[in-house]
Design brief:
Number of helices of chain A: 5
Mean pLDDT of chain A: 86
Number of helices of chain B: 9
Oligomer: heterodimer
Strand order of the largest sheet of chain B: 6-7-11-10
Structural class of chain B: alpha+beta
Distance between the termini of chain A: 51 Å
Strand content of chain A: 5-15%
Shape of chain A: elongated
Shape of chain B: elongated
Order of helices and strands of chain A: EHHEEHHH
Helix content of chain B: 25-40%
Largest sheet of chain A: 3 strands, antiparallel
Strand order of the largest sheet of chain A: 1-3-2
Low-confidence stretches of chain B: 98-111
Chain lengths: 112, 306
Amino acid sequence: MIRESELIAQYACLEQHVLLTWIDEGVVVPHRDDNGYLFDRVDEARVALACDLHYRMGLEHASLPVILSLVDQLHDARNCLRAMTKAVAQQSDDVQQEIARLIASTRTTERE
Amino acid sequence: MADPYAALGVERSASQDEIRKAYRKLAKETHPDLNPGKPEAEQRFKEINAAYDIVGDPDKRKRFDAGEIDETGAEREPERHFYRDYAETDRNTRYSRRGASQGDGATDFDYDIFADLFRGRGERGTFRVPPQDVRYTLEVDFLDAAKGTRKTVSMPDGKTLDIAIPAGIREGQVLRLKGQGLPGTEGTPGDAYVEITIRPHPHFKRDGHDILTTLPISLGEALNGASVRVDTIDGPVDVIVPKGVKEGAKLRLRGKGVAPGKDGGRGDQLISIHIAPPKGADDALAQFMAEWEKTHPQNPRGREAT
C-alpha cells in the first residue's frame, strides 16, 4: 500500500487538491490509518482510470463520479453474468441447450 | 529480441568488467569478417552489439534494469494495471454494489442484482430464485450451552443472527433459525442452520445431563469430614464432605446439572473427591505415621511380595 504523497509523485498530472476532491466524492475510497490515507493496487488502478478520464480524455470533474458509478454497475453486471454462466455450465447438456435456444430466440425477438 | 544479458551470456548481476569481457570474446567469435565461413555470424553479431549497447553502458543498463527502457533502448511505459483487472475479482467489494446511490452495501451483491433484474415480472416463466438456506457454525460458551441463553451474533458473512440457545444443547446439535437465511426473488427468506460447538470450561465437564467436577480436599478434611465451598453452574454452594471419604468417591448435588434432565427437570453435578497429599510434611509427621503404621498395618499394594 502506498501513501498520498507517493501516489501523487507517480502520477505527474495529478494534483493533491484534485485527489482530495475525488476522495470526498467517492471516486476513490482509500484505506485509512492514523497517519492518513493508504492506497492499495485497486485504488491505484482506480486513480489511474480517473486520471485518464480527466486529463487524457478531457472529461470534466463533475462527470467522473457518474462515469465511475456506471463502470462499477457494468462490472457488477458482468460478475453476475459470469456467476450465472457458471451455474448454467453445471447443468445437464439438455438444460444448457434449452437455455441457449431461449437466449437466441429472445434476442431475435427483441431486434424486431 | 532476446534479453541482453542472455545474449551476452552473463548474469544480471555481472560487473561492467565481466560484461565487457564477455562482449569482446563474443565479438571476436562472431564478427562476420573474422568468420567468413559462417553465414549466421552476422545476425548473432548484430544481436550482441545491440545487447552491449544497452548493458555495456552503465546509465542505460541502470534504466533497463529499472524497466524504463526496453532491450532496443526505446522508452517503455511504466507497467500499468487497469482497473478492470481488479473489478472482475470477487474481493473488490469496496467499489461494487454501487447503483445510483453511494453504495453503503447492505445485502449480498449477487442477490441485489438478481432481485433487481427479476423482481415481480409476473409473466410466465419468470426466473425465480427460491429462498436460500444458509449454514453456519457457532462456538458457544460452556455455561451458555448448559443454562441456555439468547444471543445476537455477527457472522463472518456480515449477517446478524438472533439465536435462542436452549439449555442443555449438545455439541454438534444444529439449530434451525426460521427466516434468517437469504431471500429468494419473492422476498421470503430461507432458514439459517447453525451448528453448535461448545467451548470447554476449565473446571466443569459435561456428561449428558450431568456436570462433572473434581474437588481436591486435604487429608485432614477427608479424615474428619468438612464443609467445603464448591462451584456449580449456578454459583458456589456449601457441600458436606463426609468423614472418612475415600479417594475418587463421588458426591452428588441433585438438580445442579443441565436441563432438561430426566422427568424434564435437571441433571446432577457429580463431584469426584481427590485427596491431596499433605503440604509441608515434616519429620514430625513422618515419625508419627511410622509409629501409627506399626499398630495399623497398611497393605496398599494388596497380596504382592513386599
